[in-house]
Amino acid sequence: xxxxxxxxxxxxxxxxxxxxxxxxxxxxxxxxxxYLFLFLLPAIVWYVVFYYIPMYGVTIAFKDYSITKGIxxxxxxxxxxxxxxxxSSDFSRVLRNTLIISALKLTFVYTSGIFLALALNExxxxxxxxxxxxxxxxxxxxxxxxxxxxxxxxxxxxxxxVNQIIKAFGGNPIYFLAEEKWFVPILILSDVWQSCGWGxxxxxxxxxxxxxxxxxxxxxxxxGRLQKIVHITLPSIANVIIIMMIFNIGNIMNAxxxxxxxxxxxxxxxxxxxxxxxxxxxxxVQMNYSFSTAVGLFKNVIGLILVLLANxxxxxxxxxxxx
Length: 323
Prior knowledge:
mainly alpha, MetI-like fold, transmembrane helix, Sugar ABC transporter permease, MetI-like_sf
C-alpha cells in the first residue's frame, strides 16, 4: 500500500485516540466532582425546561400560527413574516429606538459602575465607605414597578418634588415623562441610579486583587491618585472590563423592557418604543404570534452575532474574551 494512503489512516487513529483520552479525563473529572455537579443540576434543569425546550416554538415565526390548529397544524409561510417586518415603518422605528437607547446605556450605565468602583476604592474611611456602598446597592433590589412609581411621583407636573422646585424658582412645570426630549434622558438617569451600585461590585472585587506593592512603588515614585488609577488600576482590571463589555454588547438589542414598560406612554412612543415593547403589543395584545416571534428571533440572532464579533475583537487586540 502506498505511504500516502497510510498517513491519513494514522492521523485518524491518533485523532480518535485523543478524543477517547479527553472523554475518559472528562468522565474522571465528573466522578471526582460529582457532588458539585449535583448542586449544578437544578440550574441545568431550569435552563433546559424554560430555555431550550421552548425553542421549538420559534418555528411559528415561519408559520401562519393559529391557536386552534397548534404549532404542528399551522401552515408554513416561509419568510413571509420577516419580509413584512423589514417593510414595516413601525419596525424601523423600534429598531432605531432600541439601538439608540442601548448605545446610551452602554455609554453611561455600563461605565457608571466602573467610575463608582474607582471612587469607592479611593475612600479610606471604612464606615463611610460601607454606608455609600449600601445606599448605592439598594436600588438594585427594587423592581422597576417600584422605581417607576417613584419616578412618576418625583416628576409629576402637579405635585412632583422636581417640578415644585422648578416652580419655586419661577419656572414652568415640565412633563418629563410625556415629552420626547425629556423621556430618554430620564430613562438613562434612572437606570444609572438603579444599576451603578450593583454593577460596581465585580470591579471592586477585581481591584481588591491588585498587588498593593504596585501602589506602594508608585507612591515612592511620586505618583498621584489619578496617575495610579490610569497606570495601575485600569490596566489591572482591563480583562474584567472587556468581559463585562462583551456581556453588555450581547444585550444591546435588549434596551430594558421592564423599565420602559413602567415609564412610557403613547405620547412618547416615537422615541421610547423598543423591540421588546413592540413584540409585547403585537404578540400578546394583538395576538399576532407569528409576526412577534419573527421580530423576537431577529433580535436574538443579532444579539448572538454581536457577542461573537465583540469576543473576536477582544481576542484580536490582545485581551481575554469569553473563549
